[in-house]
Amino acid sequence: MLQMVITVLTFLGSIYGKYLFKKWINPLTIYCIIWGVLIFLYELKLISYPDIQPLTAFLIVSVFLSFLFGILTVTSARGIFLNQSHTSPENNLFLPIFADGGKTLKYSIIFFSLICLYAGIEIWLVLLKIFGSIPAIVLNATIVYKLNTSREIKGLTPLISIVGYVAVFFAGIYTAYNKKFTFVSIFPFIGIVIRELAVVGRAGMLLALMEFFFSFFLFRHLLTTKSPLKFRFSRTNALIVSTVVIVFFISIASLIRISRSTGENFTGASRELSQTKDDLIIAPSSYLYLSSHIGVLNQYLASEGEKTKFGQNTFLPVYQVLAKFQVWKRPPDYQKGYFIPSWTNTGTYIREFHADFGIIGTLIIPYLIGLFMTFFWFKFLENHNLYVFALLVYLFLIIGFSFLVMVTRINYWWISLTMIFISLPIIERIAVFVSNLKRE
């Protein structure tokens, strides 16, 4: 019965999002789907999770309503103060980044992707020096994972590999403009996957996949709104390639899960779930990864709380930088784990808001996220500003990761966004310069 209620509410929320934003890929619909799926999977109880406590349920609902009110603040204000003719679609759409037909952008994507690929290969070379062979690295995946989490793998700074996420962002834009998927669309992922395989990680691949998804569909929305005939995208091409990419990433993530897992026999797993322990994609750990975070939030709220500095989780990279200058003691990179009945340490972004800012923070921050996402959504459609677009995409990443953690605790989020802001004007100026040369 509860699963049916969750399904209906998720459907109604998604429909309302479509009504407000006129497109299926919008802040409200994405939020409803992510949290609807999370709660639905948790309530399946394929692992004997504890029941959702009243305080946990109150916070989940309150955070959603705060996010929704943030959206409605902007949409209501627009309905009252803005002249509808001001937002009417334009037939002509000019973006400096495409002044030369997208060639500069294409080669920029290749350039950033090659740097990321080099960083990924370099990590493997470091591991080969430690373990001697690729089979030895694979067999010792658990040790590699621990070495990485304790920052004991010495090699190229991870900052170099972050340019891969810059390439992914631009690849989404280029693919929407190019009207089809090409090798350039996929190339940025290769270096990211190679690096994540080396360090036995999954979050980096999920971040890249979400970033491409949002940047592609949101930019495609602009193009089809402003110039629907010129930028008509092949849905068949999009469906086929998207399916291939998603299956590829799921397979890679499953291989990483198998290599670093000590077993699939989870305490409290149902008989139905235990029967999938030998499957490549569907397995108890996969279900745990997708569903357990509400249980951690539950246990966190039931505990005596955690001592954290103001904004320590939300702005973790800032505290890490301050720690290098010995201003603060370096905070732990990973959150405290809870037994639910398996050990898990990620408790949705609500846990981090609560730990960092208290109850007030769990209400104010989601409101601001909803408000700014909606503001940037309409601002981009009206002004076509790619800086605004980058902020919009990265706010979408916060919602995309909200079932897991507050993604801003990952330095990749901050640094790649900064790199995008730095590289955008350079790419635009080169594209305009090349275009002017051709005219002369």
Number of domains: 2
- Determine the N-to-C terminus distance: 70 Å
Helix share bin: over 70%
Count the beta strands. Answer: 2
Structural class: mainly alpha
Strand content: under 5%
Mean pLDDT over the residues:
86
Could you explain the architecture of this structure?
This protein is mostly helical and 440 residues long. The protein contains 18 helices and 2 strands. It has helices at 2-21, 27-44, 54-81, 103-131, 134-139, 141-149, 158-161, 163-178, 183-199, 203-226, 235-260, 271-274, 284-291, 293-302, 316-324, 348-383, 386-400, 411-439, and strands at residues 338-339, 343-344. A two-stranded antiparallel ribbon has the order 1-2. The longest helix is centred in the last third of the chain and has 36 residues, at 348-383.
Q: What is this structure, in a nutshell?
A:
The protein is mainly α and 440 residues long. It contains 18 helices and 2 strands. It has 2 domains: 2-88 and 304-345 and 347-387 and 397-404, no CATH class; 96-260.
Brief descriptors of the model:
18 helices, single chain, 2 strands, two-stranded antiparallel ribbon, 440 residues, mainly alpha
Write the layout of secondary structure elements.
Layout (H helix, E strand, L loop, with lengths): L1 H20 L5 H18 L9 H28 L21 H29 L2 H6 L1 H9 L8 H4 L1 H16 L4 H17 L3 H24 L8 H26 L10 H4 L9 H8 L1 H10 L13 H9 L13 E2 L3 E2 L3 H36 L2 H15 L10 H29 L1
Antiparallel strand pairs: 1-2
Helix pairs in contact: 1-2, 3-16, 4-8, 4-9, 4-18, 8-9, 8-10, 8-18, 9-10, 10-17, 16-17, 17-18
